Amino acid sequence: MPELPEVETVLRGLIPHIQDQTIEDVIIRRPDLRWPIPLDLRERLVGHSFGHFQRRAKYMLLGLRHAPLTLIWHLGMSGRVKVVSATEPYSYAPHDHVIFVFEGGARIIFHDPRRFGSLHLTDQSPDEHPLLTHLGVEPLAADFNADYLYALCARSSVDLKSRIMDQRVVVGVGNIYASEALFRARLHPARSAHTLTLEEAGLLVGAIKDVLLAAIHSGGSSLRDHAQVSGEMGYFQHQFAVYDREGLLCGHCQAMPICRIVQKGRSTFYCPTCQEV
DNA sequence: CTGTTCTCCTGTGGGC
DNA sequence: TGCCCACAGGAGAACA
After folding, report:
1. pTM over 0.70
2. Is A16 in a helix, a strand, or coil?
3. Which residues have Cβ atoms closer than 7 angstroms to strand C?
4. Predicted local distance difference test score (pLDDT) of residue A33
5. CA triplet A258, A260, A264: central angle to 5 degrees?
6. Residues forming beta bridges with residue A102, ordered by sequence position
7. CA A168, CA A231: separation in Å to the nearest integer?
8. Separation of CA A119 and C1' B13 in angstroms?
């Protein structure tokens, strides 16, 4: 699933359910996710509670309140989080891999059919974890700006879409929002990154921030409705301008159907009129 | 260093 | 209906 807005929304939705709630049990039904789940996960978490919550790229970082230990949680491509209240009957579904049981009986269930998700523990600053050390800037932070993106595009030989999806440049821009942001900025996804002007870099930075913020906002509202129904958090309906709209009329120019091309083995969607090369 | 391709895994939807 | 293939929102590993 999850691109940055979904991860942000899931994390925010999780906080009121688990903050400062004592962890009574951690049930691992399948340890072989993207990487093996730490063998000592249960023994290191039980009796503690999560007190600090942070997102870095598409990782959720859950810090223990009274111990220097952080759970590093990635939802992969198909990960979902289910919140089950203490009174709610629940029988395990296929792909319910890890269950956190809290004081009083509430449960948080990590459900991930494709098992590209992961759980790690670190007793250092999470930024020093090997998975996080080489990450670029956060797209919503002030240091992701026109000057920065211009500089990182100027000396690159790849196409624009690949550049903004490169986690060493900026994190959290996945396949959906890469297409959406380039459309908003009216930039062709296949253009060479080094042809980007400073002005265009500014437009693209603004488009990335706008599209991510809009999705976070819509995810936040979906979460309230959706959580009431099923307790699941993960996938939300967004209104996409180009993503997965091949052949449909562009909503901006009303003249051309949206095109699909493949870049680095992944689908890209754009309007050939609005996004000239 | 850079950039590309391969890989993990399961589910789903379209075409025949 | 059933079968097969392409493809799916990520990203590290391996390689040129």
Report:
1. yes
2. helix
3. A 1-3, 6, 34, 57-58, 74, 76-77, 114, 116, 131, 134, 167, 174-176, 235-236, 266-267
4. 96
5. 150
6. A23
7. 34
8. 31
